[in-house]
Amino acid sequence: MPTVIAVTSPDLVLPPEDQQTPPAVPLQSPDSQPLEHALADMQTLIDQHGYVIVVYSAATPTPMQHRLHTVRSILETDRIALFRSDLPPLGLAVLVRQLRQLSLCDLTAGVVASAARLLTHYIHAGALLNSVARLDRVPVGLKSHAKSWLPGSQFGVVANPAPQLVKIGPGAALAGPEFGTWLLVARGQLESDWVKDTLARSWQVQGLREAVLPAESARWWGTSKLIEFATYLPDLSILYQLVTSVRRDRCHWCALELIGDRCVFCSATPPAPENQTPARDVLNHEALARQE
Predict the structure, then answer these.
(1) Arithmetic mean of pLDDT, 189-217
(2) Residue 186: strand, helix, or coil
């Protein structure tokens, strides 16, 4: 069985775009499930799949984040990876689907988990908003705050990979991806064709699909009057090529294969150079010991 991807909300499970992509497993909140049941469910996932990668938002309610760490701590296992992301909800759902696709490939659990950080850089996630007065996850200047109180104002915002904010009007534009992508759009309580027409055209997207707006989106963006969007690479072969083109290493702590500088399963980082003894020095010490 492939490594399973788990999420903290069913909203993060987008429909697959092929018949092979496995589903993600939504975990229940502390309000709806006692701790002992959460432990039993997680142990079952480990027994069935070997490794579990839990993807959750930095905006996930604190009790749920505490529950995730409590479950991993009590089970005393290095088979649960907790990946915390700053992506907005729709962008995070895109990332989750990409990890679901990669879980079927000949990649180890450590590589799939650490691929989440790499693939995040290729997702342009943002929204069209009627107000930025309550937006606190993207820098907003005083002038934009003032303009947001004007009737009929709309703002184009990108949260990832780099923050951008423009007031919608003639010539307004957002910098987009410099490679071919598809655009996923989720409508909230805002009527506008700007995303589908102007943004999609300026970003030269290769296709467009619609999705249901995640329940967390209104809280994340500070308003329910929004249209959320995210670009994505739909071709699994390209995702696989991106991941496999990066050098792989072994975690010095848990020995899992990974890419990047941090193991998502045990959170270990490479030891500092001064704490590493070169192999030739080890051999010299052993030789001296034998002489003594």
Answers:
(1) 96
(2) strand
